[in-house]
Design a protein that fits this description.
Length: 251
């Protein structure tokens, strides 16, 4: 049974500081226990401030980056030079500020097809973790439609029970955009801990549905329920406005 915690913030600075502390603490515990920290990163805009904060002088030396392995929860089928690349976003916000050894950067490589990229990435996960990949921490965001990573409502990828990584097509209005490579629910739910960062009023309906609505097999963010891991949601007031529970977290 997993444990779900929800923290609601009036101030976004407090949200990002707590998120940074959560990553630092999880990294320290992982490195102490396992000698390494396997962290699954999210794309999107929300985590940019967290990556920049962790790369700042205030946090940069609080994580042993030489023992930290970075993975990506999803990627667009674009070159890393493309502004839509999740790898590029992390490179700009975090990797430009901290020294992570090249062999610790497990990016989703864009090859001849998204299907081939997905297969290659799944092989890389098995090479690193063995039979059962298990990230120490999976950082996730959520779209206004309740998607997470590139698992969208109505996507066949939601029903994937075996594969850890698949190719996926973005829904309208991005349907004509680049295809995606995404980790599946079995991969996400094998994580020891999940940290969702959700901000903004546009996400309020999906957040209330995910956290307080009835079980919905077509609501990807609600389906992230690690078998034995913890799920922590750090959300701002705007995103939390439809939640029945209103306890505010302060720094
Ligand atoms: C991505 C993420 C995606 C993101 C949500 C929220 O690659 O974009 O995997 O799931 O977390 O779309 O995005 P924002 O943080 O930009 O609102």
């Amino acid at each position: 049974m997993n444990v779900t915690e929800i923290h609601i913030y009036a101030e976004s600075d407090d949200l990002y500081r707590d998120a940074a502390e959560w990553v630092v603490q999880t990294a320290g515990e992982a490195i102490e226990r396992d000698g390494r920290f396997a962290w699954l990163l999210s794309g999107g805009d929300t985590p940019r401030r967290l990556y920049a904060l962790l790369g700042s002088s205030e946090y940069g030396d609080r994580i042993d980056w030489t023992l930290t392995h970075l993975f990506w929860g999803d990627e667009r089928a674009v070159p890393i030079s493309d502004p839509r690349s999740n790898y590029r976003m992390v490179a700009e916000t975090l990797l430009s500020r901290v020294e992570v050894p090249g062999q610790n950067l497990h990016r989703i490589r864009i090859t001849a097809s998204p299907e081939e990229s997905a297969t290659e990435y799944e092989n890389e996960l098995h090479h690193f973790f063995g039979a059962r990949p298990a990230f120490h921490l999976a950082l996730l965001g959520m779209g206004a439609d309740g998607h997470t990573a590139s698992l969208f409502p109505g996507s066949p990828a939601l029903g994937q029970g075996e594969r850890l990584v698949v190719a996926a097509a973005p829904p309208p209005p991005d349907a004509a955009g680049p295809r995606r490579i995404t980790l599946t629910l079995p991969a996400l739910n094998a994580s020891e801990s999940v940290l969702f960062l959700v901000t903004g009023a546009a996400k309020a309906p999906a957040l209330a549905a995910a956290l307080e609505g009835p079980p919905d097999p077509d609501l990807p963010a609600q389906l992230v329920q690690p078998a034995s891991g913890s799920v922590v949601w750090l959300v701002d007031r705007a995103a939390a406005q439809f939640l029945k529970r209103k306890t505010l977290s302060t720094a």
